[in-house]
Amino acid sequence: MRLSGKKVIALVDDEFEDLELWYPVYRVREEGAEVHLAGLEKGKTYTGKYGVPATAEYSWDDLSAADYDGILVPGGWAPDKIRRYGAVLKLVQDFNTAKKPIGQICHAGWVLISAKILDGVTVTSTPGIRDDMENAGAIWKDEAVVTDGHIISARRPPDLPPYGKAFCDALAGE
């Protein structure tokens, strides 16, 4: 499997978009990578918008980008909560500095905005946060998936298949 030996963080908080968390997590695992769910509290079970649970194996405070190969940020309403924590913003900034894959879909762009890493980056997101993305300096495209270097972005759940492939390709270095 082409992602054997790779490790990925997937961020969670209440009201994540269920498909936007679990589809990429399973897609990356299918290719052989190890994925750890991380939230504010280790061991806490967070609930998605549609009731699907996700238990954090780690706290954001316990993680270092140096120990991982990529990070996934799901959409939903969770990104508006996640973006308020310095530990998350530092993680995202560290992944960005190291040019390691950062996957974001739908409202997850809010986390990258708060991490201040989008200036001059071409991305997509749900159209609802287009203005936010552009005001952060991003170049916004209405496309299913946009890859700009190590940042992989998608709009919404129907874009999950090409998004999952694009993130796995980036993680594999392809």
Beta-strand proportion = 15-25%
Rg over CA atoms, rounded to whole Å, is 14 Å
List the uncertain runs.
none
Order of strands in the sheet with most strands:
5-2-1-6-7-11-10
Q: Could you please describe the fold and organization of this structure?
A:
- The chain has a single domain (7-172), classed as Rossmann fold, CATH 3.40.50.
- Helix content is 31%, strand content 22%.
- It has six helices and eleven strands.
- The strands form three sheets. The chain has a seven-stranded mixed sheet with strand order 5-2-1-6-7-11-10. A two-stranded antiparallel sheet has the order 3-4. Strands 8-9 form a two-stranded parallel ribbon.
- The protein starts with 6 loop residues before the first strand and ends with a helix.
- The mean pLDDT is 98.
